[in-house]
C-alpha cells in the first residue's frame, strides 16, 4: 500500500543520505513531501529534494508561497507517517520536550500519524546521558518509534554508534511501525526457496523456486512483531532485515535445521519447494559423461511437513508445539488438491497457489493464493507477493495467537 510520507531532514552530515531514502520511498510507490530544518540546507540543497520528489520542499513556518500550496496543518493531516532521518541531537531534544519553533517541529506536534525517528550524530554526542534520556523519552512517547543508529566509522573518523542506517533498514523499521503487531512475541520459523540434490560436484537436481514468497512472508512476520528464523535453500535474494537466515542446500540439511528448531517455535510455515527425491549416490568429484549411466537411481527425501504433522499436527494428540502451515503449488484443482494435502500432511492450515501461466510462473512477483484453514471457506488473494504475505499472516493471526 502506497504511503504519504513526510520526510523530515535535519542538519547533520547524514542529510545527504536522506536523498537516497527519498528515492527508495518513491521507487516503492510512496508519495514523499520533504521538510528541512535551516541547518539541513547547509548540507543539501532544497532543489535536490524538489527534483527527487517532484513536490515543493517545506523550509519555514512563515513561508507564504509554501503555505499557499500546502499549509503545515494540512501537511500534518496528509501524512500517513512522519519519518525524521537524520535526526540530530538538537532535533531529538526539541521533539522530546515538545518544542515547535520551526516548520518540522510544528508538523511533528500537529500530526496524529506515527513518527519514526532515525538519530544520526557523533558517537560521543549519541552516548551523552542527556541525548540518551531524550531518546528514551521519545521511544516511550505513544506513536513514536526510534531506530537505533548503525555502528561504524563516522565522518569525524570516530568509530562507534551514530551512523544513519541504510535505506533498506529504515524502510523495514518504517513498515514495522505501521504494521499491526499481530505476531508480537511469537517465534516464527519458515522455510523458503528450492533445495539442490547433488549428482556430482558440477550437477544437481532442483526446481525453479525463487524463494520470493517465503522471503516476503518472513519480512511480513517480522513487521508484525515476530522473532523470525528463515531456513533458506539457494536463492538470489537479500536477507530480510531483522530475520535470522540459515542457508542450506539439500533437503536433508533443511530437514535437520527445521526439525531442530520447530519445538521452540510458535509457528512453523513450510514454504520451501523441497525436492522429493535425491540421487542414491552423489559423487564428490565431477563425473565424466562417458562414465555416467543414462538412468539415475534415486532415493526418497524426508517429508519434512508430514513429519512435523505427525509430531505437532491437530491429529497428533500433542498439547504443545507450533502451529503448522503448509504450502502447495498446484497446476489444477488448486483448492481441492490443497485441502487434500492439508489433510494428508496433518497441518493446521495450508496456502495453495496456482503454478503455470505468466501469473503463476516460478519467480514471478505476483501470484494468487488460497488460504485454507480447516473446513472454512478458502480466502483468495491476488497481487504482489509482499501484499500477499501480509494478507496471509492476517488470515492466520488467530491461529498464531492461539
Task: Put the structure in a nutshell.
InterPro entries: CoaB-like_sf, CoaBC, DNA/pantothenate-metab_flavo_C, Flavin_trans-like, Flavoprotein. With 402 residues, the protein is of the alpha/beta class. It has 14 helices and 19 strands.
For the biggest β-sheet, the strand order reads 12-11-8-13-16-17-18-19
For this structure, what is the CATH homologous superfamily of the largest domain? CoaB-like
Q: What would you report as the Rg, rounded to the nearest angstrom?
A: 25 Å
- Beta percentage is 15-25%
**Strand segment tally:** 19
How many structural domains can be distinguished in the coordinates?
Answer: 2
CATH topology of the largest domain: Rossmann fold
Major sheet characteristics: 8 strands, mixed
Uncertain stretches of 5 or more adjacent residues = none
The helix/strand class is alpha/beta
Distance separating the two termini: 28 Å
Shape assignment: elongated
- How many H/I helices? 14
Global mean pLDDT:
92
Given this structure, which CATH class of the largest domain is correct? Alpha Beta
Q: Which range best describes the helical content: under 10%, 10-25%, 25-40%, 40-55%, 55-70% or over 70%? A: 25-40%
CATH architecture of the largest domain, by name, is 3-Layer(aba) Sandwich
Give structural notes.
In the C-terminal section; belongs to the PPC synthetase family. In the N-terminal section; belongs to the HFCD (homo-oligomeric flavin containing Cys decarboxylase) superfamily. GO terms for molecular function: FMN binding; metal ion binding; phosphopantothenate--cysteine ligase activity; phosphopantothenoylcysteine decarboxylase activity. Its EC number is 4.1.1.36, 6.3.2.5. This is Coenzyme A biosynthesis bifunctional protein CoaBC. Its cofactor is FMN; Mg(2+). The chain is α/β, with parallel strands linked by helices and about 400 residues long. It folds into two domains: about 5-180, Flavin prenyltransferase-like (Rossmann fold), CATH 3.40.50; about 185-400, Rossmann fold (3-Layer(aba) Sandwich). Helix content is about 35%, strand content about 25%. The chain has 14 helices and 19 strands. It has helices at about 15-25, 45-55, 65-70, 70-80, 90-95, 105-110, 125, 130-140, 165-180, 210-225, 250-260, 305-310, 335-345, 385-400, and strands at about 5-10, 30-35, 80-85, 115-120, 145, 150-155, 160-165, 185-190, 195-200, 205, 225-230, 245, 265-270, 275-280, 300, 325-330, 350-355, 365-375, 380-385. The strands form five sheets. Strands 12-11-8-13-16-17-18-19 form an eight-stranded mixed β-sheet, sandwiched between helices. A five-stranded parallel β-sheet has the order 2-1-3-4-5, with helices on both faces. A hairpin with a 5-residue loop joins strand 18 (about 365-375) and strand 19. Helix 5 crosses helix 8 (about 130-140) and helix 10 crosses helix 14. The protein is elongated and about 80 Å long. It starts with a strand and ends with a helix.
Amino acid at each position: 500500500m502506497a504511503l504519504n510520507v513526510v520526510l523530515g531532514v535535519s542538519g547533520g552530515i547524514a542529510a545527504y543520505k536522506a536523498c537516497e531514502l527519498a528515492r527508495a520511498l518513491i521507487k516503492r510507490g510512496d508519495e514523499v513531501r520533504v521538510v528541512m530544518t535551516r541547518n539541513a540546507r547547509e548540507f543539501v540543497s532544497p532543489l535536490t529534494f524538489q527534483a527527487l520528489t517532484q513536490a515543493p520542499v517545506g523550509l519555514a513556518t512563515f513561508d507564504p508561497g509554501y503555505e499557499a500550496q500546502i499549509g503545515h496543518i494540512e501537511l500534518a493531516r496528509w501524512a500517513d507517517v512522519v519519518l525524521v532521518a537524520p535526526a540530530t541531537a538538537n532535533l531529538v531534544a526539541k521533539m522530546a520536550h515538545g518544542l515547535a519553533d520551526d516548520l518540522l517541529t510544528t508538523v511533528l506536534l500537529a500530526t496524529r500519524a506515527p513518527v519514526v525517528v532515525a538519530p544520526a550524530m557523533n558517537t560521543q554526542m549519541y552516548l551523552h546521558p542527556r541525548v540518551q534520556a531524550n531518546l528514551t523519552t521519545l521511544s516511550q512517547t505513544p506513536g513514536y518509534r526510534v531506530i537505533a543508529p548503525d555502528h561504524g566509522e563516522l565522518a569525524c573518523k570516530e568509530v562507534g554508534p551514530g551512523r544513519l542506517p541504510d535505506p533498506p533498514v529504515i524502510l523495514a523499521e518504517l513498515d514495522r511501525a505501521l504494521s499491526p503487531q499481530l505476531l508480537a512475541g511469537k517465534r516464527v520459523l519458515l522455510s523458503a526457496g528450492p533445495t539442490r540434490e547433488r549428482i556430482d560436484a558440477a550437477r544437481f537436481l532442483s526446481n525453479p523456486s525463487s524463494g520470493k514468497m517465503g522471503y516476503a512472508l518472513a519480512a511480513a512476520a517480522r513487521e508484525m512483531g515476530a522473532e523470525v528464523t528463515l531456513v533458506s535453500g539457494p536463492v538470489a535474494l537479500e536477507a530480510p532485515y531483522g530475520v535470522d537466515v540459515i542457508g542450506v542446500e539439500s533437503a536433508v540439511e533443511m530437514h535437520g535445521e527445521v526439525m531442530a528448531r520447530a519445538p521452540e517455535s510458535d509457528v512453523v510455515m513450510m514454504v520451501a519447494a523441497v525436492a522429493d527425491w535425491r540421487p542414491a549416490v552423489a559423487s564428490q568429484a565431477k563425473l565424466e559423461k562417458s562414465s555416467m549411466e543414462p538412468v539415475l537411481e534415486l532415493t526418497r527425501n524426508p517429508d519434512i511437513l508430514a513429519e512435523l504433522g505427525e509430531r505437532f499436527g491437530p491429529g497428533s494428540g500433542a498439547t504443545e508445539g507450533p502451529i503448522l502451515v503448509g504450502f502447495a503449488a498446484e497446476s489444477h484443482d488448486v483448492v481441492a488438491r490443497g485441502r487434500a494435502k492439508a489433510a494428508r500432511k496433518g497441518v493446521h492450515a495450508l496456502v495453495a497457489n496456482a503454478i503455470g501461466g505468466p501469473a503463476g510462473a516460478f519467480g514471478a512477483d505476483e501470484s494468487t493464493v488460497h488460504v485454507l484453514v480447516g473446513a472454512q471457506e478458502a480466502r483468495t488473494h491476488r497481487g504482489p507477493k509482499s501484499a500477499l504475505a501480509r494478507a496471509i499472516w492476517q488470515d492466520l493471526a488467530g491461529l498464531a495467537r492461539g
